[in-house]
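Data availability (excerpt). The following record was deposited with the supplementary files.
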Amino acid sequence: MNIQLQTIILIFIRVTSFIVVSPGFSFKGLPSVAKIALSMGITLAAYSAVPVMEQEAGTVLFAVLVIKEVLLGIALGFITKLFFTAVEIAGNFVDFQVGFSMGAVYDPSMGINVSYYGKIYYWLSMCVFYLTNLHHVVIKSLVKSFTTVPISNSNLGDFGVEGMMKLLGIIFEIAFNIAVPMMIVALLTEVILGLISRSVPQINVLILGMPLKIVASFVMILVLLPTLVKNIQTTLPLMVKYMNEFMQSL
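Predicted structure:
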């Protein structure tokens, strides 16, 4: 196996591992052929910008490099997935406050049980991801990773474990910040229901409460939609920042 072929294979493995994990490029319903075609396209485009291996790797070393590329691609894809998950978690927070979390249904496109606002927030983030051309920036960052961590480098250090743990904490903070406006609305609705219950005891708040919270959430999400989109638009570009920081930490 010559050096050029080994280089192409290693590039393809990192790109494919990334695409399989990253939600922005891989949906559960997307055919495998399309994923492979996308991986091949990015691989061929990146090949000219990737330094070729200095010498041909032996069987053992090549196997180690393959494992490294798989782990690296998965890690980079996982970072992008975390930010989409943050937006989805924000929707789940809202669902819990409104009461929609009890009606979670299976989403075949995501492969998990999702609640209504969680799904809305997720697909809204996906729209922002593509409409702002952030997918182009992510692909550029992925190609740049071959310069930061060359394919011939078999040492990954501590693999950025500490940074990943910190990132998980940041993700929950982001999710809470995105969900705060709607959570405040749900809290105010609860306060209003409490006041109604005290002032008009004849009204059954348990029966009135659920429809009122649902209607209030529908109205307020329309009112707060520009703010929500702006928050998502501010959040998603952070994935590129943390991808680059992760690569530099290796």
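Summary of structural features: The first strand starts at residue 105 and ends at 107.
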